[in-house]
Amino acid sequence: MSEEQIRSLERQFDEKIARDEKIEPKDWMPEKYRQTHIRQMSQHAHSEIVGMLPEGNWITRAPSLRRKVALLAKVQDEAGHGLYLYSATETLGISREEMYEQLHTGKAKYSSIFNYPTLTWADMGAIGWLVDGAAIINQVPLCNTSYGPYARAMIRVCKEESFHQRQGFEIMLKLANGTPEQKEMAQDALNRWWWPSLMMLGPTDDKSVHTEQSMKWKLKRKTNDELRQQFIDQTVPQADILGLTIPDPDLKWNEERQSYDFGEINWDEFWQVVKGHGPMNKERMKARVGAWERGEWVRDAAMAHAEKKQARKEKQAV
Amino acid sequence: MSTKNWPLWEIFVRSKNGLEHRHCGSLHAADSEMALENARDVYTRRNEGVSIWVVESKHITASNPENNGELFEPAQDKVYRHPTFYDLPDDVKHM
Amino acid sequence: MKNENLYNYILGIADNSLILGQRMGELCGHGPSLETDIACTNISLDLFGQVRSYFQYASKIAGDGRTEDDIAMLRKEREYKNVLLAEQPNTDFAYTIGRQFLFDVYHLAFLRELQKSTDLTLSAIANKCIKEVSYHERFSSDWVKRLGDGTEESHQKMQNAIDDLWTYTDELFHQTEADKAMVAEGIGVDVTKLKEAYYKNVSELLEEATLKVPDLKYFQKGGKEGVHTEHMGYLLTDLQYMQRAYPNMEW
Question: Is residue C59 very low, low, confident or very high in pLDDT (cuts 50, 70, 90)?
Fold first, then answer.
């Protein structure tokens, strides 16, 4: 194809997206579109799968049966969401195994927040409330993104996730209204998860490399800073209901902006964790790689069995 | 190292009798029985289905979007296939 | 307690689901494939759902303010009545599947009988659980066949698991005092009558899976009387952690 032809195809492609038409797997797409989507979607899928670990850490220790089933169902949903997203990504011509390979070798990233440890039961509350809260803000606009399979997966994900944040907030509410020891546990969890949750919405706009292109392709509808502000504005009143204190002395309502001003985020910490030096990066990867390697003989057995069964069926048919 | 990975399956779920099966996503499984079980566990956790179809993805033949012009555009001007094409006086009822 | 036998009888049933559910729950996030992970969690969720129905009933019978969680998490090890099979660890996926399969075949036969109980609450619970357990049995049987008749490696691993777990199967058919009293009242299931069909069904499936049926004359027992294996203490340490570390609080 000549360069001119490609430019013309690209122009038609951009117009199609601008008209809010979806791109489907077999449609022509610029190579950069494909690569960007593989990167973002697989990163999203990895985040779901790695995100199972910090919460999975508390399944066996949940304090009541009601909490245990809710947590199990939530962590299971994350597996489901990872699965939907991996499947959607596979429509772009990459296999799940290749994506795992990228995750396991550190080539692919996942949300840095999951590299923090879950130390108390209150962390289950804080993660549901804050981390899922931030995730929802990120994800809802993606239900409308330009790539059809991604948008469809996200609609399913968002529908299912609606209980996740409530689940977390309810845990926090119970703790905040519980004994002084429980309330302290809740405050401590908020103190540890607040800043990483803000970082979860991505680097500031002046440091964010992908924003402009992502906006055009509807991988993003608002900038990181806008999303962060939205998250803070909706979360602070929720903390007030809990009677907990957001760990930011500079947090202040700004009458003029009709928004909260907030303190400086420690971006050094953010980059440290992104680059692999957070408290739990190594453990998380070890857990993922371990599960995959321990599962290999199981997956192989299932394939071998399927082939034997098929062969028997064919022999019978003859 | 695994020589063969579980193939991909497309999953279709009928949400209730009277409705058609609809494509709801895909998953990996070693064979059709496992694909059915996995589909049940993955795609009907919230009571979404009363019947499941699974089809190995490689068995689906899809039309090529490049041919959309010749495949689908010729249908656009066949307006006489639609009831609105026909002029009837307003006082004709039940038609 | 007026109905002590019934109370103990319910705990005997429910503890199996509780401990097995706890074991399955450990795997969440660590399964051999995403799809299998999700399936195992479904089993765990079913089992915990059953536990809650049983313990809510037991709590009503106890009538002394003990909640389902008190019953689930605040007993001493000797007071848990689950069979030893249920508490065996997830040594590898073959053990997980073997344990599930050996329990499911029993569980299904047991629930079929419990449906006929003259205790309407128990028969209603059985009626609901039986659909879940039929699926568990199908799932675990299919996997025993896949692993048994899969690769050489998986065959060996599945055989090892069955060989090791076999010693815990006989206990499934032991009767406790509560069992006998409940059978006499038409409430309980006479588990001794399930034994023959159990070994027949299990053996047939193992053979289909190209596995050898262990030839064992000596069996382990004790779980039903509260004498457990060394694994149990660690399992309970996790299960009871919050309730022990922060007593008398609501969550």
Answer: very high
Q: Which residues of chain A have pLDDT under 70?
A: none
Domain count for chain A? 2
CB contact under 8 A, C32 and A182: no
- Residue A95: what pLDDT? 97
Q: What is the pLDDT of residue C1?
A: 74
The predicted structure's pLDDT at residue B1: 42
Query: Residue A115 and residue A271: Cα distance in Å, rounded?
Result: 12
What is the number of structural domains in chain C? 1
Residue ranges of domains in chain B, CATH in brackets: 8-92 (3.10.20.520)
Gap between the Cα atoms of B23 and B1, Å rounded: 33
Share of chain A above pLDDT 70, in %: 100
Alpha carbons C27 and C205: distance in angstroms, whole number: 25
The ipTM of this complex is 0.97
pLDDT on residue A213: 84
For chain C, report the end-to-end CA distance as a whole number of angstroms: 28
Please indicate, yes or no, if residue A273 is contained in any of the structural domains: no
Using CB atoms and an 8 Å cut-off, which of residues 112-131 of chain A contact chain C? 121
Q: What span, in angstroms and rounded, lies between the C-alpha atoms of C9 and C7?
A: 5
**Shortest CB distance from C25 goes to which of A72, A294, A299?**
A72
Mean of pLDDT values over C12-17: 98
Q: Is the pLDDT of residue B2 over 70?
A: no
Q: Is residue C17 part of a domain?
A: yes
Shared domain for A237 and A212, answered yes or no, is yes
Partner residue opposite A298 with nearest CB, options C28, C51, C93 = C93
In the numeric block, the tokens 């879940």 are attached to C132
Chain A contacts in chain C segment 29-68 (CB below 8 A)? 29-38, 41-42, 44-45, 48-49, 51-52, 55, 68
Domain range enclosing C185:
4-245
CA–CA min distance A55, chain C (Å): 9
Contact C39 B38 (CB under 8 A): yes
Q: What is the CATH number of the domain that holds C139?
A: 1.20.1260.10
If phi over 0 gives left and psi between -120 and 50 gives alpha, with beta otherwise, what is residue A296?
Answer: alpha
Residue in chain B nearest A91 by alpha carbon: B26
| Domain containing residue A313 | 279-317
In this complex, which chains have at least 3 CB pairs below 8 Å with chain C? A, B
Q: A182: Cβ–Cβ under 8 A, 6 or more apart, which residues?
A: A122, A174, A175, A176, C246, C249
Q: Report yes or no: A220 at the C interface, CB cutoff 8 Å.
A: no
Q: Which of residues 265-304 of A touch C (CB under 8 A)?
A: 287, 290-291, 294-304
Residue of C nearest to B6 (CA): C33
Same domain, A247 and A299: no
pLDDT digits (tens, 9 = 90+) for C73-86: 999 999 999 999 99
* Average pLDDT over chain C, rounded to an integer: 97
